[in-house]
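Entry — protein

Goal — fold tokens:
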Amino acid sequence: MHLFRSILVAVLAVTPVTVSALKPFRKELQKVPPLQSKQKSHDVKYFHEPGGDLELGHYDIRYFKQKVPYEQHRPALQHLIRSYLTTFRSLGVETWLAHGTLLGWWWNGRIMPWDYDLDVQVSAATLHYLGKNLNRTIHEYEYFDEKGAKKTKEYLLDINPHHSDVGRGDGQNVIDARWIDISNGMFIDITGLAERQPSGSPGVWSCKNFHRYRTTELYPMRQTEFEGVPATIPYAFDRILTDEYGTKSLVTTEWEGHRWEPELKEWVKTPKDQKTVQKTSPFVDSKNH
């Protein structure tokens, strides 16, 4: 088997306000063989989810055991994004926040507590590199919890073999890759952007799910932080967000049973007896799995 070596960084403790020091370490990464997915022979979809409701559509079926409770959900997603961003940075691989994850960054640099998964993007050239060199590698991630104890988690970088397809096809493989928590099946969706019509529409980048961006909206990328670790976002992030979600997404202060508290700069869960009904969502994720 091929072995890969990378330098990873232990990330911040998962608490609302407390963080711990960063600590680098080394880990050998071993390629794992393809896993058998629960799919029929005629099914060409690569990534599969348990399904049944919105939340169950956001777990990888190969590693799913049970739903992660609300109290543990955001910390698990924090580990996901921190491990992903620090690993890709240590490998020198460019990636940036996208969709609802980028919107969470805009509000307070954190994951919105009702999110079930996370979204990032890479270039098609980066996808090709990942598929050739790092596909199906397990990455170990160390961190310190709120009590100062060292913990370890493992994540799988899994590249969809359909990632090089130029078109959308039947829509079952619009997600090009995933960063998967193998302890519970939670994941980050990774989609690739490419100039799909360089002669007819030069400088227009798109994914397989019809999100389109101009080169000047993406570059030069901006360096920032997300969930306490270094992150990258597109240059025209405000235009990208309003094009995708509308201007209301930047000002609406109640959604999905949560209320924005400006003094705390946090989304706080609303007690059941205080919930108000909002008929339309400014936060609808327009991507289709």
